[in-house]
Design goal:
single chain, about 150 residues, alpha+beta, Jelly Rolls, 6-stranded antiparallel β-sheet, 4-stranded antiparallel β-sheet
């Protein structure tokens, strides 16, 4: 086995990108290739937080819960859904499905993007933000527990 340098990886369209988001999350990304596929490990802040509601036109996103719990909301053709996921559970959002996640404090998730990317294939969903950003973690956990 021979290591691949960051420069050689870039020649194949693969890069790493790591960010601290405004909500305190840490995101460690691999991919961001021209076809839109990528992998991201996200570590939630110590207080937990909502992400920003959005949708994609060309890529699907698979979210897998490693630890902690998440709530996800989706808005699909006007139908609103709110669910809770625990470790080992996952959800996939297809193109054009508006979605948002709340990550519980310290939770870890994995996100895989795949499909056909369009340039800047991330579109905000203010209408879903209006339905999610005000929801407190206690209410989310109660909703998720009642559904089980």
């Amino acid at each position: 086995m021979q290591p691949i340098s960051p420069e050689e990886a870039r020649s194949y369209g693969m890069e790493t990108k790591h960010d601290r988001m405004d909500n305190g999350e840490l995101r460690f990304r691999l991919g961001c290739s021209a076809d839109g596929s990528s992998y991201c490990r996200t570590v939630a802040s110590e207080s937990g937080a909502w992400q920003n509601s959005h949708y994609h036109k060309g890529v699907s996103e698979l979210y897998v819960v490693q630890s902690g719990w998440i709530a996800y909301a989706e808005l699909n053709e006007g139908e609103f859904k709110l669910e809770l996921l625990r470790p080992g559970e996952s959800v996939t959002f297809r193109p054009l499905v508006h979605h948002n996640l709340y990550l519980s404090p310290g939770s870890v998730i994995h996100t895989i993007k795949y499909g056909t990317a369009y340039e800047n294939d991330w579109f905000p969903s203010p209408e879903l933000n209006e339905r999610t950003k005000h929801l407190a973690p206690e209410a989310l956990f109660a909703i998720g527990s009642a559904a089980r």
